[in-house]
Design brief:
The protein has 178 residues and is of the alpha+beta class. It is built from three helices and ten strands; from the N terminus they run E-E-E-E-E-E-E-H-E-E-E-H-H. Helix 2 packs across helix 3. The relative contact order is 0.19.
Length: 178
């Protein structure tokens, strides 16, 4: 069965500073025409900073779209043409004040494939050493170290709702750790 939609034309595009919004017209497999509305995103990275076995640096910050202070792993948007590894090194230092002696790719995923083309590349960083805490001028955040056990309990209790953080912590627990 053919499932692929055929792109016909872009109907509208609104570009913001960080992301854009598009409406494309497509032909469906049955020949009908439909519109597809989606967020156009350059991609992002996220990093699980391990300060000691089972001890992870987390970031707290206010997220306007959900109206809450969230507990997340450090993350950031890719700049145009930037490689994910370069971005993860930058974001780790900016948001936590640490650099990593070792960085390993964990996985990549689409957080919301139904209405965004964003890809998040998740890394694990360890052998941390002091760098320079230097968040972007519009970022207000604080960092704290938590045990993996506490973070997994926070997921179970619904206290951590951020998808990249949940995916990274569960993947770390189930893929990298015995």
């Amino acid at each position: 069965m053919n499932l692929r939609e055929k792109y016909i034309k872009r109907i509208k595009e609104i570009q913001g500073r960080a992301v854009g919004f598009r409406i494309d017209q497509v032909q469906l497999p049955n020949g009908h025409v439909a519109n597809r509305e989606y967020l156009n995103h350059p991609g992002a990275v996220a990093v699980l900073p391990i300060v000691a076995p089972g001890r992870i640096i987390m970031v707290r910050q206010f997220r306007h779209p959900v109206g809450e202070i969230t507990l997340e792993i450090p993350a950031g948007k890719l700049d145009k043409g930037e490689m994910p590894l370069t971005c993860v090194k930058r974001e780790l230092e900016e948001e936590t004040g640490y650099k990593a002696g070792r960085i390993k790719k964990l996985l990549s995923f689409w957080p919301t494939a139904a209405f965004a083309n964003e890809v998040i590349h998740v890394y694990v960083a360890d052998k941390l050493f002091k760098g320079r805490f230097n968040p972007d001028e519009d970022e207000f955040l604080s960092c704290k170290v938590y045990s993996l056990k506490t973070l997994l309990r926070s997921i179970q209790q619904g206290k951590i709702k951020d998808s990249k953080t949940i995916i990274a912590l569960l993947a770390y627990k189930n893929i990298l750790r015995p």
